[in-house]
Design a protein that fits this description.
It contains 3 helices and 9 strands, in the order H-H-E-E-E-H-E-E-E-E-E-E. With 158 residues, it is an alpha+beta fold. The strands form 3 sheets. Strands 1-9-8 form a 3-stranded antiparallel beta sheet, with no helix packed on it. A 3-stranded antiparallel beta sheet has the order 2-3-4, with no helix packed on it. A 3-stranded antiparallel beta sheet has the order 5-6-7, with no helix packed on it. The longest helix has 29 residues.
């Protein structure tokens, strides 16, 4: 009953199964290892103009655009309430992709108070939040970034 061809085929199948399991373990370890994903993104340094308080700047890089704004203390109080403005984790800047989240169109400044999606009625405050709560779109998308120490550039991770 021990046909040499059957024994050979059984050994070949065992080797294939073992190799497949080893490959699966390797892929799982690589996928779930946080260190392997940390270096995946590209780091881009984007120069900024001198930022004047409460003015929105549109900065282009590659084929994309960001909106950057530095808050004055008055705008900070208005946007984030008086109790949170004294905390150190209160945002001092808005930095987001300059695309709306409703139809994905570019943003423009409206009346110096809002960011408006150019192809729809989607309206955002200068914190990147939708103005009306009953809208079916989310806040502006914020990339992973850090400012240079003198705020002359942004280090953006893609």
């Amino acid at each position: 009953m021990n046909n040499p061809k059957i024994v050979y085929l059984q050994r070949l199948i065992k080797i294939f199964v073992i190799a497949s399991l080893m490959w699966l373990v390797f892929v799982m370890v690589d996928y779930f290892n946080p260190d392997s994903r940390a270096g995946d993104g590209e780091l881009i340094r984007i120069p900024l103009p001198p930022l004047v308080d409460d003015r929105a700047y549109f900065v282009r890089f590659d084929q994309r655009q960001l909106v950057v704004m530095r808050y004055s203390s008055e705008r900070q109080l208005k946007l984030f309430s008086a109790s949170s403005a004294s905390r150190p984790d209160t945002p001092q800047f808005l930095l987001a992709y300059a695309l709306g989240t409703y139809l994905g169109c570019p943003l423009e400044v409206l009346d110096g108070q809002y960011l408006k999606e150019s192809c729809s009625t989607a309206l955002y405050d200068f914190a990147g939040r939708p103005v009306r709560d009953n809208q079916n779109f989310t806040a502006l998308m914020v990339p992973v970034y850090t400012f240079c120490p003198d705020y002359s550039c942004i280090n953006l991770r893609l």
